[in-house]
Amino acid sequence: MSPLEWILQLVLLGLLGAAIPFALRLERALREIRRDRAAMDGSAQGLNEAARMAEAAMVRLRASAELSGRQVAERTAAAEPLRDDLRYLVERAEALADRLEGLVRNGRPLAAEMPRPAEAPLQSQAERDLIRALAAGLPKAAR
């Protein structure tokens, strides 16, 4: 071998020797990247599982909300006729209360003028209250 070949081989050997620390650093970095990649894959799988569970929960929640909405609509539909009936009964009750109030106002002066029967004493307070109520409620023409 000629001296030039020896020099070139020594230079090549020196360059290879200088490349070994870089190769070791590169190997460590690749090992860390692989480890991080495995952790990231595990995290991605966990994230995918969490996303699937969230989607399933949203579907169940949506179904529950629709069911609740239907139940509320059914109960509202069932309550509307009752509301109308109650409104009608309240209107009738108000009219009857006004009429009764007018009869009571008209009957008060008549009850004060009406003579008290002095015959047989009444047997109970209930009978006295009944006579008084009947006298207050009768119009003049019926007495």
TrEMBL record:
Domain DUF6468: from-to ranges: 33-108
Transmembrane segments: 6-26
UniProt keyword list: Membrane, Transmembrane, Transmembrane helix
InterPro entries per UniProt: DUF6468
Domain of life: Bacteria
Entry protein name: DUF6468 domain-containing protein
Organism: Neoroseomonas marina
